[in-house]
Amino acid sequence: MLLKATIVMLIIVGGCDRVTKNPAPSQQSVPVPGASMSKATTLPQPVRDAFQKDRNDATILKIKHRTMTDQMVHYTITSTDENGARHEDEYRSDGMKINASAGK
């Protein structure tokens, strides 16, 4: 009986001591790999490869996708090049370029 009481007392005192010394943070940040922050990672690999080949130094501003009547998904990528010129390129999900336009 004395042994049980001692164990219970140690658990209570030990548990309280840890809570007061090291309280859990109210919010914990989750590390996010840098690559997942890139908009290009949301593109299918064939589209990403084709866009990188066409506009290697471009910065992606926006990506839109839509399913066309032939059931192919088209990706429209709005980007700027190293000179600040804006471009809009469209690719099918298999990486085939549909059109490109230079913006303002």
Kindly list the characteristics that best describe this protein:
alpha+beta, single chain, 4 strands, 104 residues, four-stranded antiparallel sheet, 29% strand, 29% helix, Nuclear Transport Factor 2, Chain: A
Give the overall shape, derived from the CA principal axes: elongated
Radius of gyration: 27 Å
Portion in beta strands: 25-35%
- CATH topology of one domain: the name is Nuclear Transport Factor 2, Chain: A
Strand order of the largest sheet: 1-2-3-4
Number of helices: 2
Low-confidence stretches: 28-37
User: Between the first and last Cα atoms, what is the distance in angstroms?
Assistant: 84 Å
Number of strands: 4
Helix-strand pattern: HHEEEE
Helix content: 25-40%
What is the CATH architecture term of one domain? Roll
Structural class category: alpha+beta
The biggest sheet, with number of strands, parallel, antiparallel or mixed sense and barrel status, is: 4 strands, antiparallel
CATH class of one domain: Alpha Beta
Query: Residue-averaged pLDDT, rounded?
Result: 78
